[in-house]
């Protein structure tokens, strides 16, 4: 019997010749990448290299000009975003515009209720709601956010707000979590803490992240892909990337122009 939801814990995310063009401008050209289950995989590259465009092609935010996206054995290239979330691919939500006026616990309870298809919680029994609250508290504890459960999200330090975004993404029970500069705008002490929490997420969650801070990339990534001008320049382990002359040239060239 075929099922529309891939339930394998070993789902690999893969692209084949993915390209995105606006007019004559190619933001992504022929990008073929594989993200293995449990990966901690960083996408790096200079400004405008096409990293965010690539994430948008993965999530369905943009339709590719050509190429394909596979989730496990399924070609998901034409699936809408919410169908990809249902299959287990999610990116962080922008809490600043979503649930900022609610408490952290309320926000996560809403996200879990949505996943469980019980968004109209006032029709549900106390037992069903208790179950959701228990799941929400366990999730918050895993992110060391349980102490903030009753705080209004917008009153939290920015680093904690980014963690709430991650909590909301995790509430969808993703197999693949896509993080676009999770530490952007956070003081460096807080960003290290944030990445430590990210690194501690269960291995059944594959993590793909864009990050400009090379200290964080080399500390937390196990695999790195370098994009330049919309194309893959190279991919490898942190040691391989650190030793790659072409990568050094790209970054030295960039800093010379800053
Ligand atoms: N909707 C769009 N229409 C036209 N051009 C776009 C669009 N979105 C992005 N671009 C262009 O595509 C190029 C790649 O942008 P993208 O945001 O993917 O790069 P990036 O590697 O994520 O950069 P940064 O590190 O600065 O965030 C940029 O030149 C950008 O101006």
What characteristics describe this protein?
six-stranded mixed beta sheet; Rossmann fold; single chain; alpha/beta; disordered N terminus; binds adenosine-5'-triphosphate; 258 residues; 9 helices; globular
> What is the percent of helical residues?
25-40%
First-residue to last-residue Cα separation: 57 Å
Structural class: alpha/beta
Radius of gyration: 19 Å
- How many helices? The count is 9
Keywords: ATP-binding, Cell membrane, Membrane, Nucleotide-binding, Transport
Organism: Herbaspirillum rhizosphaerae
Domain ABC transporter: 13-254
GO molecular function: ATP binding
Explain this structure to me?
Helices cover 37% and strands 22% of the residues. It is of the alpha/beta class and 258 residues long. The chain folds into two domains: 12-88 and 175-258, 3-Layer(aba) Sandwich (Rossmann fold), CATH 3.40.50; 92-173, no CATH class. The strands form two sheets. It has a six-stranded mixed sheet, sandwiched between helices. Strands 1, 2, 3, 5 and 6 form a five-stranded antiparallel sheet that branches. Helix 3 (104-115) packs across helix 4 and helix 3 packs parallel to helix 5. Mean pLDDT is 88; it is low at 1-8. The structure holds adenosine-5'-triphosphate. The site of adenosine-5'-triphosphate (ATP) has 10 residues, from helix 1. One of its GO terms (molecular function) is ATP binding. InterPro entries: AAA+_ATPase, ABC_AA/LPS_Transport, ABC_transporter-like_ATP-bd, BCA_ABC_TP_C, P-loop_NTPase. It comes from Herbaspirillum rhizosphaerae. Pfam families: ABC_tran, BCA_ABC_TP_C.
């Amino acid at each position: 019997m075929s099922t529309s939801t891939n339930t394998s814990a070993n789902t690999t995310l893969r692209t084949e010749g993915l390209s995105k063009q606006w007019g004559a401008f190619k933001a992504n050209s022929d990008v073929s990448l594989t993200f293995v289950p449990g990966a901690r995989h960083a996408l790096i590259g200079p400004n405008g290299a096409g990293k965010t465009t690539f994430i948008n092609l993965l999530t369905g935010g943009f339709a590719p000009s050509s190429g394909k996206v596979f989730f496990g054995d399924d070609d998901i290239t034409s699936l809408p975003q919410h169908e990809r979330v249902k299959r287990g691919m999610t990116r962080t939500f922008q809490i600043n515009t979503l649930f900022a006026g609610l408490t952290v616990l309320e926000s996560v309870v809403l996200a879990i209720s949505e996943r469980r298809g019980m968004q109209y919680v006032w029709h549900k029994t106390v037992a069903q709601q208790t179950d959701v609250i228990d799941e929400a508290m366990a999730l918050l504890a895993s992110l060391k956010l349980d102490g903030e459960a009753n705080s209004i999200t917008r009153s939290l330090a920015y680093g904690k707000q980014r963690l709430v975004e991650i909590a909301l993404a995790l509430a969808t029970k993703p197999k693949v979590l896509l993080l676009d500069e999770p530490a952007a705008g956070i003081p460096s002490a807080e960003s290290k803490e944030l990445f430590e929490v990210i690194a501690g997420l269960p291995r059944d969650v594959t993590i793909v992240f864009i990050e400009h801070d090379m200290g964080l990339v080399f500390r937390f990534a196990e695999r790195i892909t370098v994009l330049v001008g919309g194309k893959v320049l190279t991919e490898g382990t942190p040691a391989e990337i650190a030793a790659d002359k072409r990568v050094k040239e790209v970054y030295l060239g960039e800093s010379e122009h800053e």
